[in-house]
């Protein structure tokens, strides 16, 4: 009786949710140096994952929260990363208050990626049309380890999110550190975000290896969308300056004699739409990368796709995108999980959430 009473009390105060996405599709990529390829790929629209999300009511408007999320490849059953990290997607714990906001510690999303994927991109950073093909959204611009994140409550549609990630290099408190701040607004069909991201590329001294001072990478993104009900329009503009501010997802996908150079001064732009059609949604976008360095390695991409709801949790999708590279640029058409291998890609697949 005592044990049963205790279990009932604990259950009333806390809960853990298991959730995930199962996504796989047939992908056809063309135009790369290695030739055309057709494959079964996991996470085309949204990376396949399994996660555990928990909350415990601590009283006085305060709750303890945590998230542990692992990505996997549905095509072969392996983890979606080459490291030993199990919860490579998200792993954090923190406190949440309706009046004071949320503070979390661990591996978390960068506000820059949140704005790009949730506000700017009609493809939601997935499918062949993913904004990640031209916008700098890889690595620490997507998720950051050793991060402290604070998010305010929402006031009349406004909220602020800040991230500070420690570089954790002995002898230097700034080497490798990263911080970002995002200002958000959401009300009456309008969503907008302004995000600044700052990445320190220095390396601290280690033993007989001297410290290395490098240029800081900086990104400033403005993202917006508005829902007219019959159509939802999207837009984004980003300025990338400094080392690692605009990396190339694939080093030399086209086998050029001289490999493409990552830009240290670029402007990225996006316009797009989604159109609800019965049980489905049409997606389309156009993006441009304006390399402002002497290399002038510009690129632009157009994309179109369609997602059809088979049920509340299951959808089928099809998408196509084409990139045009200029002056030796080397951008590729990927999807949510892969960077791609060529300048065009076709997707056909199915996605289920649980």
Automatic annotation (TrEMBL):
Localization annotation: Cell outer membrane
Keyword Transport: yes
Record's bilayer topology term: Multi-pass membrane protein
Keyword terms of this UniProt record: Cell outer membrane, Ion transport, Membrane, Porin, Signal, Transmembrane, Transmembrane beta strand, Transport
Domain named Porin: residues: 4-327
Alphabetical list of Gene3D superfamilies matching this protein: Porin (2.40.160.10)
InterPro entries per UniProt: Gram-neg_bact_OMP, Gram_neg_porin_domain, Porin_dom_sf, Porin_Gram-ve, Porin_Neis
Keyword Methyltransferase attributed: no
Assembly notes: Homotrimer.
The name this protein goes by in its record: Porin
């Amino acid at each position: 009786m005592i044990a049963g009473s205790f279990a009932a009390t604990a259950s009333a105060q806390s809960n853990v949710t298991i959730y995930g996405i199962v996504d796989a599709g047939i992908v056809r990529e063309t135009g790369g140096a290695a030739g055309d390829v057709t494959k079964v790929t996991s996470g085309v629209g949204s990376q396949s994952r399994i996660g555990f999300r928990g909350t415990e009511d601590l009283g006085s408007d305060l709750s303890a929260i945590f998230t542990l999320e692992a990505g996997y490849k549905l095509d072969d059953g392996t983890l979606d990363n080459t490291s030993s990290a199990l919860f490579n997607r998200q792993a954090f714990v923190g406190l949440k208050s309706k009046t004071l906001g949320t503070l979390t510690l661990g591996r978390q999303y960068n506000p820059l990626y949140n704005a790009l994927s949730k506000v700017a991109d009609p493809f939601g950073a997935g499918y062949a049309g993913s904004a990640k093909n031209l916008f700098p959204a890889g690595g620490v611009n997507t998720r950051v380890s050793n991060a402290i994140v604070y998010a305010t409550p929402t006031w009349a549609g406004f909220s602020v999110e800040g991230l500070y990630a420690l570089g954790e290099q002995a002898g230097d408190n700034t080497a490798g550190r990263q911080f970002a701040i995002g200002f958000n607004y959401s009300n009456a069909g309008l969503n907008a975000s302004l995000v600044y991201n700052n990445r320190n590329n220095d390396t601290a001294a280690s033993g007989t290896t001297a410290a290395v001072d490098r240029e800081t990478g900086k990104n400033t993104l403005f993202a917006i969308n508005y829902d007219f009900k019959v159509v939802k329009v999207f837009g984004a503009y980003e300025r990338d300056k400094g080392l690692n501010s605009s990396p190339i997802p694939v080093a030399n996908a086209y086998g050029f004699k001289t490999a493409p150079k990552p830009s240290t001064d670029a402007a990225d732009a996006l316009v797009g739409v989604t159109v609800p059609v019965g049980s489905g949604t049409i997606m389309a976008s156009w993006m441009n990368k304006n390399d402002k360095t002497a290399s002038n390695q510009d690129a632009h991409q157009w994309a179109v796709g369609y997602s059809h709801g088979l049920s509340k949790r299951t959808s089928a999708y099809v998408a196509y995108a084409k990139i045009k590279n200029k002056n030796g640029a080397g951008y590729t058409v990927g999807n949510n999980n892969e960077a791609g291998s060529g300048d065009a890609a076709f997707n056909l697949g199915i996605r289920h959430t649980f």
